[in-house]
Amino acid sequence: MAAKFDQTDDSVVVIIGSGAGGGTLANELAQKGVKVVVLEAGKRFEIEDFINDEWDSFTQLAWKDMRTTSGTWRVHRDFPNLPAWIVKAVGGSTVHWAGASLRLQDHEFKTKTTYGSLQGANLLDWPLTLTELEPYYAKAEDKMGVTRTNNIPGLPGNNNYKVLAAGAAKAGYKEFHTGRMAINSQPRDDRGACQQIGFCFQGCKSGAKWSTLYTEIPKGERTNKLEVRPESHVAKIEHDTAGKVTGVVYFDKDGRQQRQKARAVCAAGNSIETPRLLLLSESAKYPNGLANSSGQVGRNYMRHMTGSVYAVFDRPVRMWRGTTMAGIVSDEARHDTKRGFAGGYEMETLSLGLPFIAAFLDPGAWGREFTTALDGYENMAGMWLVGEDMPQENNRITLDVTAKDKWGLPVASVHFDDHPNDVAMRRHAHKAGTTIYETAGATRTFPTPPYPSTHNLGTCRMSDNPRDGVCNKFGQTHDIKNLFISDGSQFTTGGAENPTLTIVTLAIRQAEYIADQMAKNVI
Amino acid sequence: MTSKSVRFDVDRRQFLAGVGTATLVISGTAILHTGEAWGLEVKNLKPETMQTLIKMARDIYPHDRLADRFYAVAIKDYDEKSGSDAATKQMVEKGVAELDALAQKKHGVPYADVGWESERVALLRQIEGGPFFQTVRGGLVVSLYNNKEVWPTFGYEGESAGKGGYINRGFNDITWL
């Protein structure tokens, strides 16, 4: 019998969102005996509901609520109302992620110290070091079953990986393999081994890929301390006259307004909705939104320097067969300004099906140059470039001044301009990826621009000094002791690595802290 | 999207005029493809408009190995939508009329009769920034390529989990590296 808490029960911790941050935090707290209510805006789909079809799956899982955009980024031009491709469902973006699980590097926690002053970049050192996080990274890798850790063998290389590896080797790269992936290469944790289905982005139908949907959440529910309420869209976080949060107001699946009282509130709605919610929760006491004395709520939005390289060969590759992203070249992830930019980037295999390649290879393109590229689809290989982009104060989430959602609340508006460092890095990365494929024998290559952002970070960042950010080293907001940031919004800087492992790691550590503070009655 | 509403059993009599040719012909309110033997009933737009739209669709995303019926299927919804939405009907009829006018001015014939693809593409470039072209192109990128019957032409194999994934179906079968 699953837990069900009363809406007036102010002893529960309310977590907004059920993804890598919210889902992990929920289970970790429940295992420690803390009562948790998770409010998830999306529906609850299970593995049998996932669809091996790109557009149908997108319709099922993607966050499609209206958002607006501005800035010089190409996403604004090509996808003005889709700044991000993330999930609206129980499990959050762990339902559709590719599984790449990398630790941030030591210097990436101290970019201000390491990179120095870059004009226009709002660099800041994390209030955390890699050394402090290492025990929690280890717990996360064990929890998620990351290959190449915990005696878990690496996944076998698929066709797309073999092309990458052949080119990387010939081009002189040294650090490449099939990745550190949260995808079972053999049965583990009551989940089967990868069947190389090739629809990782559409929900893993074998359960081999880790997702909070079928790991953390059911484990938490079995303690009888965790209640998940899907189709519950939180509209406001409320507080008392002392400034402490007291609960949340949300819209249920019938569109009716509900209130859930809380001892503490943890925002894990991903980096666009979390700051939006804090801004929407403005009050007489907090006229700039909750936890915003620094003015940094919504600011420093990062999406990683991204882009892709696709290449056509004179013989078939069939890149769609098998894992979408089990392949990586890490040599360029180092910090080496001789290349003309600070920070580094990873090169990871990536495959899209024909429908998505048509939509994203070169958005807006048409005519024979474009269609001859698609004619080569069967002979195509592909990679994704993911690198550290610079935090800029004016890259930010704000409340749109005119557009409203179906409940009459201002939608999120996402402003983004590339920093010159991002541009230089992307140019270098496109060239490096092209070189790898040409070395492998490609007859034609395509430097694809960034997709709607799947990595969204930094909008409620951690800082030592409350003036510089929104929360402390435990994700606890500087201004309000019982309000926490529990998703990628916490990231002070983005590093070159896919963020999910770090989000899970921070959630494990945050749960320890929250439980400890509650036991001491500080929260 | 499927070819369901493009009929492949058109009355033989309707083909008498066009037997031996492989073109889109108009017969009453239908467009007939005499070469591929299918017909498309056109209810709300002018048949000539649909005919031009099919040509325009191919010129936007030309694949020589894709038969006309795939382009017809990709744009046929404009006819139905024109029945219920006056703005769509006006956008399409006006857009095609404008395209034909540009073609008449430059080549003395309607768009669909301009001989070289490059010449037709040059005409499309003149209307490229407008809402008609953008709507048609944006719709096509999904309606053309998200058709399961088109996928085999490109080698794409579609749904996989129901077949046991690719672990035993060639996920790493590349041999030429």
Account of the 3D structure:
Chain A is an alpha/beta fold and 523 residues long. Chain A is 25% helix and 16% strand. In chain A, the strands form 4 sheets. Chain A has a 6-stranded antiparallel β-sheet, covered by helices on one side. In chain A, a hairpin with a 5-residue loop joins strand 6 (233-239) and strand 7 (245-251). The longest helix of chain A is centred in the C-terminal third of the chain and has 20 residues, at 420-439. Chain B has 7 helices and 3 strands. The chains are: A alpha/beta (523), B mainly alpha (177). Chain A binds chain B through residues 50, 52-55, 156-159, 161-163, 166, 194-199, 205-206, 315-318, 320-322, 353-355, 358-359, 364, 366-368, 370-371, 374-375, 377-378, 440, and chain B through 59-63, 65, 117, 121, 137, 141-142, 144-146, 150-151, 154-162, 164-167, 169-174, 176-177.
List the helices and strands and how they pair.
The complex is a heterodimer of chains A (523) and B (177).
Chain A: E1 13-16, H1 20-31, E2 36-39, H2 54-61, E3 68-70, H3 74-78, H4 111-115, H5 130-144, H6 159-170, E4 176-177, H7 216-221, E5 226-229, E6 233-239, E7 245-251, E8 257-261, E9 264-267, H8 270-280, E10 305-312, E11 328-329, E12 345-349, H9 354-360, H10 368-375, E13 380-387, E14 396-404, E15 410-415, H11 420-439, E16 444-448, E17 483-485, H12 500-519
Parallel strand pairs in A: 1-2, 1-9, 2-5, 3-15, 9-17
Antiparallel strand pairs in A: 4-11, 6-7, 7-8, 10-13, 10-16, 11-12, 12-13, 14-15
Chain B: E1 24-27, E2 30-33, E3 38-41, H1 47-60, H2 68-75, H3 77-84, H4 86-107, H5 117-127, H6 131-143, H7 151-154
Antiparallel strand pairs in B: 1-2, 2-3
Helix pairs in contact in B: 1-2, 3-4
